[in-house]
Amino acid sequence: MGLDLYSDVADLTAAVVDIESVSGGEESLAGAVEEALRALPHLAVERVGNNVVARTDLGRAERVVLAGHLDTVPLNGNLPSRVEGDRLYGCGTTDMKSGVAVALRLAATVARPSRDVTYVFYDCEEVEAARNGLRHLAQARPELLAGDFAVLMEPTGGLIEGGCQGTMRVQVTATGERAHSARAWMGSNAIHSAGAILDVLRAYEPSRPVVDGLEYHEGLNAVFISGGVAGNVIPDECVVTVNYRFAPDKSLADAEAYLRETFAGFQVTVTDGASAARPGLHHPAAAAFAAASGAEVRAKLGWTDVARFAELGVPAVNYGPGEPTLAHTRDEYVEIPLIAECEQRMRTWLEGPITVAS
Fold first, then answer.
1. What sign has the CA pseudo-torsion 13, 148, 132, 272?
2. CA angle (280 as vertex; 274, 282 as ends), nearest 5
3. Distance between CA atoms of 327 and 334, rounded to whole angstroms?
4. Is residue 71 annotated as a catalytic residue, yes or no?
5. End-to-end CA distance of the chain, in Å?
6. 134: closest CA among 324, 286, 326, 314?
7. Alpha helices, H only, 163-295
8. Does 80 sit behind a cis peptide bond, omega within 30 degrees of 0 on the bond before it?
9. What are the tens digits of pLDDT across the range 79-97?
Protein backbone atom coordinates (compact mmCIF):
# COMPACT_ATOMS: atom_id res chain seq x y z
CA MET A 1 0.00 0.00 0.00
CA GLY A 2 3.09 2.28 0.06
CA LEU A 3 3.42 5.16 -2.41
CA ASP A 4 6.71 5.97 -4.13
CA LEU A 5 6.53 9.73 -4.62
CA TYR A 6 9.68 9.69 -6.74
CA SER A 7 8.24 7.34 -9.35
CA ASP A 8 7.02 8.54 -12.73
CA VAL A 9 3.87 10.61 -12.26
CA ALA A 10 1.79 8.23 -14.40
CA ASP A 11 2.94 5.25 -12.33
CA LEU A 12 2.20 7.20 -9.16
CA THR A 13 -1.28 8.01 -10.47
CA ALA A 14 -1.93 4.30 -11.08
CA ALA A 15 -0.75 3.48 -7.55
CA VAL A 16 -3.07 6.11 -6.05
CA VAL A 17 -5.98 4.89 -8.19
CA ASP A 18 -5.45 1.28 -7.13
CA ILE A 19 -5.96 2.14 -3.45
CA GLU A 20 -9.75 2.09 -3.35
CA SER A 21 -11.17 5.19 -1.69
CA VAL A 22 -14.88 5.51 -2.32
CA SER A 23 -16.30 8.36 -0.21
CA GLY A 24 -16.25 7.31 3.44
CA GLY A 25 -13.56 4.69 2.79
CA GLU A 26 -10.50 6.90 2.37
CA GLU A 27 -8.63 5.66 5.45
CA SER A 28 -6.19 3.41 3.57
CA LEU A 29 -5.31 6.04 0.98
CA ALA A 30 -5.06 8.80 3.60
CA GLY A 31 -2.70 6.53 5.56
CA ALA A 32 -0.53 5.88 2.51
CA VAL A 33 -0.40 9.61 1.71
CA GLU A 34 0.46 10.49 5.31
CA GLU A 35 3.20 7.86 5.50
CA ALA A 36 4.80 9.01 2.25
CA LEU A 37 4.71 12.70 3.20
CA ARG A 38 6.06 12.14 6.73
CA ALA A 39 9.19 10.65 5.14
CA LEU A 40 10.00 14.05 3.61
CA PRO A 41 12.10 16.15 6.04
CA HIS A 42 11.22 19.46 4.38
CA LEU A 43 7.50 19.12 5.20
CA ALA A 44 5.53 19.46 8.43
CA VAL A 45 2.62 17.02 8.27
CA GLU A 46 -0.67 16.92 10.16
CA ARG A 47 -3.55 14.48 9.86
CA VAL A 48 -7.07 15.49 10.87
CA GLY A 49 -9.38 12.52 10.42
CA ASN A 50 -8.80 11.35 6.86
CA ASN A 51 -7.47 14.74 5.82
CA VAL A 52 -3.71 15.14 5.41
CA VAL A 53 -2.01 18.55 5.34
CA ALA A 54 1.71 19.04 4.59
CA ARG A 55 3.48 22.42 4.68
CA THR A 56 6.82 23.98 3.84
CA ASP A 57 8.06 26.78 6.11
CA LEU A 58 10.80 28.63 4.24
CA GLY A 59 9.83 32.21 5.05
CA ARG A 60 8.75 32.98 1.49
CA ALA A 61 6.80 36.14 0.68
CA GLU A 62 3.76 34.12 -0.41
CA ARG A 63 2.03 30.92 0.60
CA VAL A 64 0.04 28.92 -1.93
CA VAL A 65 -2.25 25.97 -1.33
CA LEU A 66 -2.52 22.91 -3.59
CA ALA A 67 -5.61 20.88 -2.71
CA GLY A 68 -7.15 17.66 -3.95
CA HIS A 69 -9.76 15.23 -2.70
CA LEU A 70 -8.89 11.60 -2.08
CA ASP A 71 -12.34 10.08 -2.57
CA THR A 72 -14.09 8.73 -5.64
CA VAL A 73 -17.63 7.86 -6.59
CA PRO A 74 -18.62 4.18 -6.12
CA LEU A 75 -16.78 1.60 -8.21
CA ASN A 76 -18.33 0.41 -11.46
CA GLY A 77 -16.13 -2.50 -12.44
CA ASN A 78 -13.28 -0.07 -13.10
CA LEU A 79 -10.54 -1.18 -10.71
CA PRO A 80 -7.68 -2.02 -10.86
CA SER A 81 -6.35 0.59 -13.24
CA ARG A 82 -5.08 -0.34 -16.69
CA VAL A 83 -3.08 1.38 -19.43
CA GLU A 84 -4.18 1.39 -23.04
CA GLY A 85 -1.90 3.44 -25.27
CA ASP A 86 -1.63 6.94 -23.80
CA ARG A 87 -4.65 6.48 -21.55
CA LEU A 88 -4.78 5.37 -17.93
CA TYR A 89 -8.21 3.91 -17.12
CA GLY A 90 -9.74 3.40 -13.68
CA CYS A 91 -12.03 4.84 -11.06
CA GLY A 92 -10.84 8.30 -10.10
CA THR A 93 -8.18 8.63 -12.81
CA THR A 94 -9.73 11.90 -14.00
CA ASP A 95 -11.60 12.93 -10.85
CA MET A 96 -9.14 13.52 -9.39
CA LYS A 97 -6.38 11.09 -8.51
CA SER A 98 -4.17 12.24 -11.38
CA GLY A 99 -4.24 15.72 -9.83
CA VAL A 100 -3.51 14.22 -6.42
CA ALA A 101 -0.53 12.35 -7.88
CA VAL A 102 0.84 15.56 -9.41
CA ALA A 103 0.58 17.31 -6.02
CA LEU A 104 2.29 14.40 -4.26
CA ARG A 105 5.15 14.38 -6.79
CA LEU A 106 5.64 18.11 -6.34
CA ALA A 107 5.55 17.77 -2.55
CA ALA A 108 8.40 15.26 -2.75
CA THR A 109 10.56 16.71 -5.50
CA VAL A 110 10.27 20.49 -5.02
CA ALA A 111 11.91 20.74 -1.61
CA ARG A 112 12.65 24.46 -1.82
CA PRO A 113 9.85 26.09 -3.80
CA SER A 114 9.83 29.79 -4.64
CA ARG A 115 6.65 30.12 -2.57
CA ASP A 116 5.79 28.33 0.64
CA VAL A 117 3.34 25.58 -0.20
CA THR A 118 0.56 23.89 1.72
CA TYR A 119 -0.55 20.54 0.29
CA VAL A 120 -4.06 19.49 1.31
CA PHE A 121 -5.49 16.02 0.64
CA TYR A 122 -9.06 15.69 1.91
CA ASP A 123 -11.97 13.28 2.08
CA CYS A 124 -15.68 13.11 1.17
CA GLU A 125 -15.85 15.64 -1.66
CA GLU A 126 -18.13 13.45 -3.77
CA VAL A 127 -20.94 13.29 -1.18
CA GLU A 128 -23.11 15.72 0.76
CA ALA A 129 -21.46 18.97 1.87
CA ALA A 130 -21.85 18.16 5.57
CA ARG A 131 -19.19 15.43 5.21
CA ASN A 132 -16.73 17.37 3.07
CA GLY A 133 -13.22 17.21 4.56
CA LEU A 134 -12.22 20.65 3.29
CA ARG A 135 -15.31 22.07 4.96
CA HIS A 136 -14.35 20.38 8.24
CA LEU A 137 -10.82 21.80 8.03
CA ALA A 138 -12.18 25.27 7.27
CA GLN A 139 -14.37 25.09 10.37
CA ALA A 140 -12.01 23.39 12.82
CA ARG A 141 -8.51 24.31 11.58
CA PRO A 142 -8.80 27.29 9.20
CA GLU A 143 -5.14 28.20 9.83
CA LEU A 144 -4.15 25.06 7.92
CA LEU A 145 -5.82 26.44 4.78
CA ALA A 146 -4.41 29.98 5.02
CA GLY A 147 -2.64 31.28 1.94
CA ASP A 148 -2.39 33.97 -0.68
CA PHE A 149 -3.67 31.79 -3.51
CA ALA A 150 -4.96 28.23 -3.98
CA VAL A 151 -5.08 25.73 -6.81
CA LEU A 152 -7.79 23.09 -6.55
CA MET A 153 -6.62 20.22 -8.72
CA GLU A 154 -10.02 19.36 -10.11
CA PRO A 155 -10.16 17.94 -13.64
CA THR A 156 -9.98 20.75 -16.20
CA GLY A 157 -8.32 19.04 -19.17
CA GLY A 158 -5.13 20.98 -18.54
CA LEU A 159 -6.83 24.39 -18.69
CA ILE A 160 -7.12 26.91 -15.88
CA GLU A 161 -10.75 27.36 -14.86
CA GLY A 162 -11.30 30.52 -12.85
CA GLY A 163 -13.69 30.71 -9.92
CA CYS A 164 -16.91 28.72 -10.01
CA GLN A 165 -20.64 29.16 -10.39
CA GLY A 166 -22.96 29.25 -7.44
CA THR A 167 -25.92 26.91 -7.15
CA MET A 168 -29.34 27.24 -5.55
CA ARG A 169 -32.29 24.86 -5.48
CA VAL A 170 -35.80 26.03 -4.75
CA GLN A 171 -39.22 24.41 -4.63
CA VAL A 172 -41.78 26.41 -6.59
CA THR A 173 -45.29 25.41 -5.51
CA ALA A 174 -48.51 25.74 -7.47
CA THR A 175 -51.64 25.37 -5.34
CA GLY A 176 -55.22 24.45 -6.15
CA GLU A 177 -58.30 22.89 -4.56
CA ARG A 178 -59.16 19.22 -4.29
CA ALA A 179 -62.24 17.82 -5.91
CA HIS A 180 -63.51 14.52 -7.29
CA SER A 181 -62.14 14.06 -10.78
CA ALA A 182 -65.69 13.35 -12.01
CA ARG A 183 -66.57 16.90 -10.92
CA ALA A 184 -63.28 18.62 -11.72
CA TRP A 185 -64.97 22.00 -12.21
CA MET A 186 -65.60 22.08 -8.48
CA GLY A 187 -61.86 22.21 -7.73
CA SER A 188 -58.69 23.74 -9.14
CA ASN A 189 -55.99 21.52 -10.62
CA ALA A 190 -52.57 22.45 -9.21
CA ILE A 191 -50.72 20.34 -11.78
CA HIS A 192 -52.35 22.31 -14.56
CA SER A 193 -51.39 25.55 -12.80
CA ALA A 194 -47.77 24.37 -12.66
CA GLY A 195 -47.71 24.77 -16.41
CA ALA A 196 -47.10 28.49 -15.80
CA ILE A 197 -43.92 27.58 -13.90
CA LEU A 198 -42.73 25.45 -16.81
CA ASP A 199 -43.60 28.29 -19.23
CA VAL A 200 -41.20 30.55 -17.30
CA LEU A 201 -38.46 27.95 -17.56
CA ARG A 202 -39.05 27.37 -21.28
CA ALA A 203 -38.86 31.11 -21.93
CA TYR A 204 -35.70 31.59 -19.86
CA GLU A 205 -32.72 33.03 -21.73
CA PRO A 206 -29.42 32.35 -19.94
CA SER A 207 -27.38 35.32 -18.81
CA ARG A 208 -23.71 35.27 -19.82
CA PRO A 209 -22.04 37.80 -17.54
CA VAL A 210 -18.33 38.56 -17.83
CA VAL A 211 -16.64 38.49 -14.42
CA ASP A 212 -12.98 39.48 -14.10
CA GLY A 213 -12.58 38.94 -17.84
CA LEU A 214 -14.14 35.44 -17.96
CA GLU A 215 -17.56 34.67 -19.47
CA TYR A 216 -19.92 32.53 -17.40
CA HIS A 217 -23.09 30.82 -18.66
CA GLU A 218 -25.98 30.69 -16.20
CA GLY A 219 -28.71 28.06 -16.14
CA LEU A 220 -32.25 27.71 -14.78
CA ASN A 221 -33.81 24.26 -15.00
CA ALA A 222 -36.51 22.07 -13.52
CA VAL A 223 -34.89 18.99 -11.97
CA PHE A 224 -37.88 17.39 -10.18
CA ILE A 225 -41.66 17.69 -10.30
CA SER A 226 -44.15 16.13 -7.92
CA GLY A 227 -47.89 16.31 -7.41
CA GLY A 228 -51.03 14.25 -7.20
CA VAL A 229 -53.20 12.67 -4.53
CA ALA A 230 -55.06 9.74 -6.07
CA GLY A 231 -56.28 8.56 -9.44
CA ASN A 232 -59.69 10.11 -8.89
CA VAL A 233 -58.75 13.33 -7.08
CA ILE A 234 -58.01 16.77 -8.54
CA PRO A 235 -54.65 17.66 -6.91
CA ASP A 236 -54.33 20.72 -4.71
CA GLU A 237 -50.52 20.99 -4.89
CA CYS A 238 -47.74 20.55 -7.43
CA VAL A 239 -44.09 21.25 -6.63
CA VAL A 240 -41.44 21.96 -9.25
CA THR A 241 -37.84 21.83 -7.99
CA VAL A 242 -35.69 24.33 -9.87
CA ASN A 243 -31.89 24.51 -9.93
CA TYR A 244 -30.28 27.87 -10.63
CA ARG A 245 -26.60 28.01 -11.61
CA PHE A 246 -25.44 31.59 -11.27
CA ALA A 247 -22.28 33.54 -12.06
CA PRO A 248 -19.94 34.89 -9.37
CA ASP A 249 -21.20 38.44 -9.82
CA LYS A 250 -24.15 37.38 -7.65
CA SER A 251 -24.37 36.48 -3.97
CA LEU A 252 -26.67 33.83 -2.53
CA ALA A 253 -29.02 36.64 -1.51
CA ASP A 254 -28.98 37.99 -5.07
CA ALA A 255 -29.78 34.53 -6.43
CA GLU A 256 -32.68 34.07 -4.04
CA ALA A 257 -34.09 37.52 -4.86
CA TYR A 258 -33.87 36.73 -8.58
CA LEU A 259 -35.74 33.43 -8.16
CA ARG A 260 -38.48 34.99 -6.06
CA GLU A 261 -38.94 37.72 -8.67
CA THR A 262 -38.88 35.21 -11.54
CA PHE A 263 -41.57 33.04 -9.93
CA ALA A 264 -43.65 35.87 -8.45
CA GLY A 265 -47.13 34.65 -7.59
CA PHE A 266 -45.92 31.21 -6.55
CA GLN A 267 -44.65 29.97 -3.19
CA VAL A 268 -40.83 29.72 -3.39
CA THR A 269 -38.91 27.71 -0.77
CA VAL A 270 -35.11 27.57 -0.79
CA THR A 271 -33.88 24.04 -0.11
CA ASP A 272 -30.11 24.52 -0.51
CA GLY A 273 -27.48 26.80 -1.96
CA ALA A 274 -23.75 27.32 -2.29
CA SER A 275 -21.94 30.56 -3.02
CA ALA A 276 -20.07 31.25 -6.24
CA ALA A 277 -16.40 32.24 -6.29
CA ARG A 278 -14.83 34.99 -8.36
CA PRO A 279 -11.90 33.97 -10.60
CA GLY A 280 -9.28 35.66 -8.42
CA LEU A 281 -6.90 36.00 -11.36
CA HIS A 282 -6.19 39.62 -10.48
CA HIS A 283 -4.05 38.49 -7.53
CA PRO A 284 -0.30 38.59 -8.28
CA ALA A 285 0.17 34.94 -7.27
CA ALA A 286 -2.69 33.89 -9.55
CA ALA A 287 -1.33 35.95 -12.43
CA ALA A 288 2.11 34.44 -11.90
CA PHE A 289 0.60 30.95 -11.97
CA ALA A 290 -1.26 31.64 -15.21
CA ALA A 291 1.85 33.14 -16.81
CA ALA A 292 4.20 30.37 -15.68
CA SER A 293 1.86 27.55 -16.67
CA GLY A 294 1.03 28.97 -20.07
CA ALA A 295 -2.36 27.30 -19.83
CA GLU A 296 -5.49 28.71 -21.44
CA VAL A 297 -7.91 30.31 -18.96
CA ARG A 298 -11.70 29.93 -18.99
CA ALA A 299 -14.61 30.21 -16.57
CA LYS A 300 -15.57 27.24 -14.39
CA LEU A 301 -19.11 26.21 -15.32
CA GLY A 302 -20.05 24.32 -12.18
CA TRP A 303 -19.49 24.49 -8.43
CA THR A 304 -16.24 23.35 -6.81
CA ASP A 305 -14.45 23.75 -3.50
CA VAL A 306 -12.73 26.91 -4.75
CA ALA A 307 -15.80 28.55 -3.21
CA ARG A 308 -14.66 27.34 0.23
CA PHE A 309 -11.31 29.05 -0.28
CA ALA A 310 -13.10 32.20 -1.42
CA GLU A 311 -15.07 32.20 1.84
CA LEU A 312 -11.71 32.12 3.67
CA GLY A 313 -10.48 35.08 1.63
CA VAL A 314 -8.14 32.97 -0.52
CA PRO A 315 -8.50 33.46 -4.30
CA ALA A 316 -8.45 30.11 -6.07
CA VAL A 317 -8.59 28.45 -9.47
CA ASN A 318 -9.24 24.94 -10.73
CA TYR A 319 -6.43 23.21 -12.62
CA GLY A 320 -5.80 19.52 -13.22
CA PRO A 321 -4.95 16.98 -15.92
CA GLY A 322 -8.25 15.07 -15.92
CA GLU A 323 -11.00 15.57 -18.49
CA PRO A 324 -14.13 16.77 -16.61
CA THR A 325 -16.62 15.21 -19.02
CA LEU A 326 -15.26 11.75 -18.14
CA ALA A 327 -15.71 12.16 -14.37
CA HIS A 328 -17.94 9.55 -12.72
CA THR A 329 -18.20 7.40 -15.86
CA ARG A 330 -17.46 3.68 -16.02
CA ASP A 331 -14.78 4.18 -18.68
CA GLU A 332 -13.13 7.11 -16.91
CA TYR A 333 -9.57 7.70 -18.02
CA VAL A 334 -6.85 10.34 -18.03
CA GLU A 335 -4.45 11.14 -20.86
CA ILE A 336 -0.98 10.23 -19.59
CA PRO A 337 0.79 13.08 -21.47
CA LEU A 338 -1.55 15.57 -19.77
CA ILE A 339 -0.48 14.34 -16.32
CA ALA A 340 3.15 14.96 -17.19
CA GLU A 341 2.31 18.35 -18.71
CA CYS A 342 0.41 19.38 -15.59
CA GLU A 343 3.32 18.34 -13.37
CA GLN A 344 5.82 20.29 -15.49
CA ARG A 345 3.70 23.44 -15.57
CA MET A 346 3.21 23.37 -11.81
CA ARG A 347 6.92 22.72 -11.31
CA THR A 348 7.83 25.72 -13.50
CA TRP A 349 5.62 27.90 -11.32
CA LEU A 350 6.88 26.57 -7.98
CA GLU A 351 10.53 26.73 -9.04
CA GLY A 352 10.29 30.30 -10.29
CA PRO A 353 12.12 33.33 -8.85
CA ILE A 354 12.26 33.34 -5.05
CA THR A 355 10.99 36.27 -3.02
CA VAL A 356 11.54 36.42 0.72
CA ALA A 357 9.10 37.97 3.18
CA SER A 358 10.29 41.32 4.53
1. negative
2. 160
3. 10
4. yes
5. 43
6. 314
7. 190-193, 195-203, 252-262, 284-293
8. yes
9. 999 999 999 999 999 999 9
- The answer to whether 335 and 87 are in contact (CB under 8 A) is yes
Upper half-sphere CA count for residue 311 (Cβ side, 13 Å): 17
The single residue of 125, 126, 237, 335 carrying the catalytic annotation is 125
Helix (H) or strand (E) holding 240: strand 237-246
Which residue type is seen at 90? G
pLDDT tens profile 248-283 = 999 999 999 999 999 999 999 999 999 999 887 888
CA distance 51 to 81: 24
User: What global pTM score does this model have?
Assistant: 0.87
Please confirm, yes or no, whether 335 is among the known catalytic residues.
no
Whether the Cβ atoms of residue 311 and residue 138 lie closer than 8 Å to each other: yes
Catalytic residue among 26, 34, 71, 236: 71
